[in-house]
Amino acid sequence: MPPDPFFAGPGLDRADHLRADPVAILALLCDGEARELVWDNGAPAIDEQGKLRWGPIVGDPPLFLGFDGPSPRFSSLPDGNAPIDARAHFQLLSQLDAAEAPTFAAALSLANWHRRHGYCSVCGTVTDPNRGGWSRKCGNCGAEHYPRVDPVVIMLAEHDGRLLLGRQPHYPPGRYSALAGFVEPGESIEDAVAREIKEEAGIAVVNVTYLCSQPWPFPSSLMVGAHAEALDDSLTIDTNELDDARWFSREEVVAALDGGPAASFQAPPHSAIARTLLERWVDGLK
Amino acid sequence: MPPDPFFAGPGLDRADHLRADPVAILALLCDGEARELVWDNGAPAIDEQGKLRWGPIVGDPPLFLGFDGPSPRFSSLPDGNAPIDARAHFQLLSQLDAAEAPTFAAALSLANWHRRHGYCSVCGTVTDPNRGGWSRKCGNCGAEHYPRVDPVVIMLAEHDGRLLLGRQPHYPPGRYSALAGFVEPGESIEDAVAREIKEEAGIAVVNVTYLCSQPWPFPSSLMVGAHAEALDDSLTIDTNELDDARWFSREEVVAALDGGPAASFQAPPHSAIARTLLERWVDGLK
């Protein structure tokens, strides 16, 4: 069986029950085992072995990320004025040990959410970190705001043994990947899969099945991987969303995953759940 | 096969491609077939047949919900100062035709999101509806904000042929239902299922499998239904979250779904995905 998607996995023990207890969190900050995440250019710093870098506690870091064994783990908020360079952060993934990826994802998503949620959406007042950094609270109207997790469906539509893959304008040359889009209010996962394939490629699908999921911290998506059966293969491509979309045979997908000179397209990178979906399809697991 | 979860289904044609075209939306507002959703006490109004009530266009409703056949459908934002009475809205579901439920969910989630997102979270400035009401835009810093969809895992943990169900403090007397909790940043669906069961009931699970999903507009959840295998049945209940949690046999679940005098607990209502999960489990579909 192919590996689980990158970024999936248990990560730290989040010790959720401590978040509402500021005295307990303060005590953990003073624990000799406590460590603080090191940031570099707006992302968690990675050492030469692909591990996250941790240092001594400096000041009063507002994010309590959880425990690594007995060691409490904290993070400051990186400089709020630096632009978020998602492309540079994405490049880091090739250096990151998969076992560290869930913690990288949690810290980066949480930090980016804090950067863009300093004000109360209900009344416009400045808010403060709360619950060990897992929410923000408004001192004016009392509203409590929680980090966003935005579900995105990403799916393989299949017809007559071939898969539908598309190219977004920002992809590297030759890259094709699974179609994807945000789940909207009032939609199930299955409804969102059908709507997105209809919108982007003009085809109707049935029998949507779930495959696997992955957090994706650019900035805060939950990628929900699925498979669907297309009722026909006649494409009407939404050129606002896609440069191109095509049907690929099993042999073409195998060659692309192998990455050799016979490949007719460039497969998504190892960190992307789209690649996991293709690997599972090739393995016959759909 | 049991029915799909309430609130799941196609609903209106959302015509997403028109949202970025304010001239097209204005033309649709002047279309003789255009209709506007009627609101009652902060929720979409329901007629005696369980259908949503629609009236003529009044003024300039900011939400473009999509098409019902050739008829463009719009909504105003209900009075922003009235408190949201989620409990009263929930009571409406017993009167609502299932075919209308996806549109009810989309309109209610979207309206409630607008009510609580009048200010820019980045800079604190008042924002305006944008993209036919499917986003809000800040005129000061330029940030665009999209409606929240908050993924929640809801799951049946099974051990030795019995299911783990719990009672939240606000449940009606005798009610037990599936454990549930929000997916957090940096988590896959499978990771969230395992963490929530561990936190609330103290047991470890393996082999998490997805079952079905449902939008839940109180205010904006995406319920993700799952099954998991518990490694043991020795419970440590988090009494901050749950009044109680117990293991129930197949016979007890069948009796509760039947609702007769033999039931040892009260099953969740028809609108809740938790009931769909129980129905599917009983049917052996897991």
From TrEMBL, chains A, B:
<comment type="similarity">
    <text>Belongs to the Nudix hydrolase family. NudC subfamily.</text>
</comment>
<feature type="domain" description="Nudix hydrolase">
    <location>
        <begin position="147"/>
        <end position="270"/>
    </location>
</feature>
<dbReference type="GO" id="GO:0035529">
    <property type="term" value="F:NADH pyrophosphatase activity"/>
</dbReference>
<dbReference type="InterPro" id="IPR000086">
    <property type="entry name" value="NUDIX_hydrolase_dom"/>
</dbReference>
<dbReference type="GO" id="GO:0006742">
    <property type="term" value="P:NADP+ catabolic process"/>
</dbReference>
<dbReference type="InterPro" id="IPR049734">
    <property type="entry name" value="NudC-like_C"/>
</dbReference>
<dbReference type="InterPro" id="IPR050241">
    <property type="entry name" value="NAD-cap_RNA_hydrolase_NudC"/>
</dbReference>
<keyword id="KW-0520">NAD</keyword>
<keyword id="KW-0378">Hydrolase</keyword>
<keyword id="KW-0479">Metal-binding</keyword>
<dbReference type="GO" id="GO:0046872">
    <property type="term" value="F:metal ion binding"/>
</dbReference>
<dbReference type="Pfam" id="PF09297">
    <property type="entry name" value="Zn_ribbon_NUD"/>
</dbReference>
<dbReference type="GO" id="GO:0005829">
    <property type="term" value="C:cytosol"/>
</dbReference>
<keyword id="KW-0460">Magnesium</keyword>
<dbReference type="Pfam" id="PF00293">
    <property type="entry name" value="NUDIX"/>
</dbReference>
<dbReference type="InterPro" id="IPR015376">
    <property type="entry name" value="Znr_NADH_PPase"/>
</dbReference>
<dbReference type="InterPro" id="IPR015797">
    <property type="entry name" value="NUDIX_hydrolase-like_dom_sf"/>
</dbReference>
<dbReference type="InterPro" id="IPR020476">
    <property type="entry name" value="Nudix_hydrolase"/>
</dbReference>
<dbReference type="GO" id="GO:0019677">
    <property type="term" value="P:NAD+ catabolic process"/>
</dbReference>
<protein>
    <recommendedName>
        <fullName>NAD(+) diphosphatase</fullName>
        <ecNumber>3.6.1.22</ecNumber>
    </recommendedName>
</protein>
<dbReference type="InterPro" id="IPR020084">
    <property type="entry name" value="NUDIX_hydrolase_CS"/>
</dbReference>
